[in-house]
Amino acid sequence: xxxxxxxxxxxxxxxxxxxxxxxxxxxxxxxxxxxxxxxxxxxxxxxxxxxxxxxxxxxxxxxxxxxxxxxxxxxxxxxxxxxxxxxxxxxxxxxxxxxxxxxxxxxxxxxxxxxxxxxxxxxxxxxxxxxxxxxxxxxxxxxxxxxxxxxxxxxxxxxxxxxxxxxxxxxxxxxxxxxxxxxxxxxxxxxxxxxxxxxxxxxxxxxxxxxxxxxxxxxxxxxxxxxxxxxxxxxxxxxxxxxxxxxxxxxxxxxxxxxxxxxxxx
Length: 266
Description:
With 266 residues, this protein is an alpha+beta fold. The chain has 2 domains: 7-100; 104-240, 2-Layer Sandwich (Nucleotidyltransferase, domain 5). The chain has helices spanning 24-31, 41-51, 61-69, 82-96, 154-168, 186-194, 203-213, 230-242, 247-265, and strands at residues 7-10, 13-16, 19-22, 101-102, 109-116, 120-128, 139-147, 178-183, 218-223. It has a 5-stranded mixed beta sheet. Strands 1-2-3-4 form a 4-stranded antiparallel beta sheet. Helix 3 (61-69) packs parallel to helix 8. It comes from Centaurea solstitialis (yellow star-thistle). This is RNase H type-1 domain-containing protein. Residues 106-241 form the RNase H type-1 domain. InterPro entries: DNA/RNA_pol_sf (IPR043502), Rev_trsase/Diguanyl_cyclase (IPR043128), RNaseH_domain (IPR002156), RNaseH_sf (IPR036397), RT_RNaseH (IPR041373), Viral_Replic_Matur_Polypro (IPR051320).
């Protein structure tokens, strides 16, 4: 165990100096993976296991991995085609160019940008030193996304995206007095502005109001133009391909991760 050290190694990442980044040996293992090894199911699973460490660093990594996971399925095409090799090379290049995620200081103001579509939702967690600072001074500290169990209407998707953000990203804001929640849905902003004078008759609005008031934190809703909400929008629209509800694949990921962590420790 290390104490009084500015950098900490933890489950494949380095935490310190206000940043979160992949450990060099994880990056090296991914980049140096031989194509011949990837032709076997065991080799492909091992490669995907190491890529799992980069999930929080690369938006939409699940989309890129999807064709490769098919190689590990019982009935999937095991052959490595030219398109598969090009995809692997693309991922290897991207892993070598990962920007560091920036850990928010204790007094930072947290901003969560949300977006929803029929299939899923996407969130980007940002922070800035002071609430009044411009958006240009904001830094990304986390990504999140998910798939809806059933297709949603436009307004329901946007509302649920906000609710999911408040529920699933509590670790970033529960110690704050207030945060900013951004959405490109004008209906949500209008509802919030009129909430004190107009009763919402729809269940979705009641649920949304409960989510806003149930955190114990002041939630400042802010509108963002769709053209400026590209990252959250991309996460939500590609999530259908990233996170299909498949128990077998999830169990496979967990197993791979445990095996590779044991290998690293040994």
